[in-house]
Write the structure tokens for this entry.
Amino acid sequence: MHLAYNGIDVDPETQALTRNRLHWLLDHLPPGRILDLGCSQGTLSVLAARRGDRVTGVDIEEEAIAFASGLAAELPADVAARLAFVRGDGACLGFPDASFDSAIAGELLEHVADPGVVLTELHRVLAPGGTLLASVPHGLMPHHDHHRTFYRAGLRRLLEPLFEVRELTVLDRHIAAVAVRRETPQGVPAFVLTQEEADFLQREERLEQQLQSLRDKLARANGLYRDVTAANAELKAQIGGSRAGQYVLDQLSALQDTVQRLSAGVADGAATERNELQESLRELTEERDRLRADLRIAETEIGLLREAAGTAKVERDRLLESIHGLSSGLEALRETAEAVTLQRDELRALVRAQAESLRTAEAAHRDVDAEHVTAQRGMRERIIELDTELQTQQAELARIRTVYNGERHRHELTQQRLAKSVTLESKLRQENERLRAKLETVTGRLADYRDQVTRIRSSRAWRMLSVYRQLRRPGRSNPTQLTRETRPATATGAPTRMVVRRPSPPARPAPAPQPAAAAPVPLEEFRDGLREWIARARAAEGDEVVLMFSGTTFVQEARGNRPIRLTRVYLDRDCPVFFNYYRWRDTDPLPSHPDPLLFQSPIDITPRLLDEVLSADFGGKRKLLFASFPHETMVRTLTHAASRGWVTIYDARDDWEEFAKIGMAKWYHPGYERYLVAHADVVTAVSAPLAKKMETLGGRKVSVNANALDPAFPTPTTPRRPDATRIGYFGHLTDKWFDWDLVLRTARTYPSHTFELAGHQNPDLRLPDNVRLLGLLGHRELAELSAEWALALIPFKNGALADAVDPIKVYEYLHLGLPVLTTYFPQCVDYPGVRVTESAAEFVAALPQVADSALDLEEIRSWLARNTWECRVDAYSELAERVVRKGREGLLTLLECR
């Protein structure tokens, strides 16, 4: 890496690619404490130290560490002080946990035996939120020390269990990733190729083998050509002395030219090569025939010379030797021609093999191109999907920003109100002190006056004045009239004594007789009724018995909360229900109900009856205990019920903690709710935000079982005739959560509209003329009234209380065919026909749009059919069956060992 980065013994292109890859890693490397694992000769470590980071380089090769240490010694002292090079193994790093802010694994993971172990070590030594930079070769890159081949998806799968991949890109022939350490691992990292990646790798390996085979064949052909050329040169050197040798050399040169022409012909085409070879063979044949003719002529001449001149014997011998040498040369020429022919055949075979290999390579290349086109098409589709996801995320971000702005606005308003409240509190405190001081002064004066009056009335002058006043008023009895009693004289003859006696005050009139208070129902009468109900419950046809711990009496017409709706379904299924309700005094009359399978028990009596209910024999029915709110009685009863075979269910239907904050649920204690969430057999919540809160409280999975529609809820007897200016609402009107400020603002914004509000607990407010309070109405009256409404409102105050709510009235509004406009209820965001707003301004602006909208009635009917109380009861039966089948979890498991 050091040589490539500095351009030593490498071409400029390799140097540029190396620099580009290292600079990319350096640009994405956050400052701080850095670990360079597999640092090699320390090039990247030195670059990071020069910019001011503290870097520790680790490599398993001693030579690499020695070279890097030598580089560090040549650097300035301040830079060298920030560098440290250590020999070590990435599978077992000798550093404490959270020692580094960032780590680099540059071209390392393809060399190690188990990259998952190395990544686990890097996760350990990185601080929370630390960054990992990793680079590996992209695709097949043959090397004796490469243990595996990486593609983009494979590298992501390897990193994802321990690191969140923020960026993944391709640099030349390498893949580079920027990842952030996960606080909690999501699994064990493991390198696995998908089937598609494995198939692509096999194709790459086959192409590489074919290319290597072509290289080997080309090398052999080049070597063979060099050998022939060398043999020709050697032959020329051997026979280059005589005229005949020169003639042979000329022939060899011609033959070599022919070979060259043949090679060129092979390159130009098979047909041209064949023609040239045939021409060359013809020329060689003619040359051979001429040489044979010349040989015969030479033999004739020799015979003539033998007959003509005996003195030419020496010359004849020389000529004979020349002829013999020429024959040998011809033989050698023939052998050379045969060798050339063999080489020509080999070259032809080699050219044919190369052509076939080239055709195969071209076909494979076309296959690879087709695969690349398919991959590019998949990448384009993925990019489109990512663009869509990005737009969705941006929309979600905009929504969150809107929520944040609304929350910030509410916070500012709250701060302003708080400041006003503090100022007002100070003024009220001062006024209170002033009034207290004034009260003390008046009290003191009053005490002085009382003392004076007492002294005056006890004085003799006051008594005489009173007698005088009475005497001045004739005709009226004198309350101070003196009566004289003459007692008989004593035995001693002493005169009698006059006794002055004040007459008795007139008798007060007797108070009017008060009506006698109703006497409470005796406990034994409740017990007798309970025993009769247990007998009826045992004989009932339903296969479940329910203990519903609710807070209201069982009524249907004016109110219908979740426990009431669930109870109605169980009663329709012939399942008996013990229904707890709240009452203020033990003298309140008992509620009446027509169903013999329903037993209503007030909350002051229920604890005295629970032992008998929980221990009763219901004939093998499945027993379900519903705690619809976290009351102390349910905390005391939970374990006892579980030990008696009851499936305990905590049904979180509201955020009771938030209700307690506004002074509504004064009985609430957070410890009671935590206990129920942690130990009930089944825990459900009506909304996803409330389920998340319950999961946080109990540390367990909480399922969402939302509210629903009662199909028996009445509908108008006449077709809907909506008036675009009539807006409706029914339900609670308490200012604890009903946003009166928003309603009044909306009414003032649309003075031509009429807002009809049906419900109870409305505060004493001065309302505009277009806001009408209708009082508490029954369901039938509401259904008839809704036929003329353009839409229905749910204007609750935004906050934690509303976040947990799934309003039942949403289902009833949709059942009546009304579009719904609400404040922010997260559970209702995806409900059809419901417009959820996040701020007061959005609520006011959306009212005309919702009023003009048309519901998709088919979609609404289909959605309501999937969200009935029957479906909710079925869900509870499935959860209870799961508890019975699988057994309990946690501490309540001990109850099953009895």
Summary: The longest strand covers residues 126-137. DSSP finds 26 helices and 20 strands in the chain.
